[in-house]
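Before surveying the methods themselves, let us examine one representative protein, pairing a chain with its fold in token form.
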Amino acid sequence: MTVVTMRSAPFGVPDHIAPQLETLRRYWSALRRAQNPLPFADDLNVDKLAQFAPRLFLLDVRERPQRFRFDIVGTEIEKRYQEDLGDRFLDELGERTPLEYLDSQCCAVMQSKTPTWFAWQSAGCDYERLLLPLWGNGYVSSILGSFAWIKP
């Protein structure tokens, strides 16, 4: 049984998330320089995230108009979506598993400049999704994300 607690911001990260997402969040946090609240996008080394590769994605952020484009997308994500996602913009895609509310979650990342979390429960595909903002060019220029599949 899942217990949902109220958080102060939309898509707020709860106290307990899937262990693999927590590992990714700790990696992201360790990338921060000095007292900066966010890591810089150019400090991200995707090669160090090989253990996450099948369920990892990286979105490029276009500021005006605000749009999100898949730069890197894991094989498990494309398999579940049943379509190639590389170099595609979110607003060009249908909102189906496992991309439910992804655009809204990305907007929440941009507004809050903090990690966000989302969970989905439906027949055959339960998952958690974590988004982590990366700073560059004076704004959140990239969003690192990953899934934790709860059911195969």
